[in-house]
Amino acid sequence: MLKQIEGSRAMASAIALCRPEVICAYPITPQTHIVEGLAELVRDGCLTNCEYLNVESEFAALSVAIGASAAGARAYTATSSQGLLFMMEAVYNASGLGLPIVMTLGNRAIGAPINIWNDHSDAMAVRDAGWIMLFAETNQEAVDLHIQAFKLAEELSCPVMVNVDGFILTHAVERVDMPTQEQVDAFLPPFEPVQVIDPAAPISIGAMVGPDAFMEVRYLAHHKQMRALDRIPALAAEFQAVFGRESGGLVRPYRTKDAETIVVAMGSVIGTIKDMVDAMRADGHKVGALSICSFRPFPLEEVRAALYDARRVVVLEKALAVGMGGILASHVRMALRGHGTRVYTLIAGLGGRPITQASLTRFVDMVEGEPHTDVHFLDLKHDVIEAELARAAETRRAGPIAENVLRRVTPGGVL
Q: Which residues contact 56 (CB under 8 A, 6 or more apart)?
């Protein structure tokens, strides 16, 4: 059924159709409307056989989800930004215990300084915590990925994090094809937990593991992710058979067949990139785009195949590895190791700064015209940077050190 609906409300409805048995809620912008929507569905009797728990912190939210999942319940929670960092210990515990929890991450910048707008710094902070991490391009895909996430998590006994860009998706009102309960039931079977804490047969979980077995435990977590490389596209195909639309998967190429330049990104910015590709194609540029839906596990072979014939690759990053540059770009370079394709890192959209088609086009034009430095900051305000560095040099008497830093702030925007 087609509905004009806010992204968060659409996700809440889709999650409810998955019949979660425990929902642990703590509000933090921009995911709050998701758990509010679920609360209303429980209150109104639309979602039955579900215990909705308001907890006192984000750490408590995931801790309760861990307990519920270990007890055999289908468990769900959501968070954003600093909330994810506050539950960090529990994030590792959930994956280390192999619990099939589904969590929505409303992607938002991490402070200080405080910033409530979108980028991917929160997701990148937990990229190695052992969760499967899927990124939604649209609200339609956000709805669809949550349904797939429950099935994927429960098949592999591994937690799944569905990433949706804060405000850009969570608060956007747009047309979404909402699934029916019958469709979801046909795709997602009732939860049959692999491990259950039972008072009649008491066991310990999360106990001490010494050097003789810890490496094997971590390998098994890695093995699950490698299995997910096969299951994610298979589930996407199953989903299409039931719901009649393509959604999810590992990667999605767009006009890459003869592209000399391919722009790689994750999340909602892909829409802007596709518009740029179409406009540049109309002007005769051989440009394409590649959307990464599965960041963990990272589909090295699929990325390599999609980018193999490109002369240059631009990786748009909505997060910054301070002192290094790009995170997603380092993964793309690994996929292309030994191939010789030039890979550019484009840091953009930090803290919610708009990523415009015009700015993207100028950068692609620039790298097509001549080789450029590997790391570029899109629309960086050079006058502000230079003024701050000059002030620091004056007040701290940094002398030659500050002068060297200033010289590295180039018109191209590279630090």
A: 26
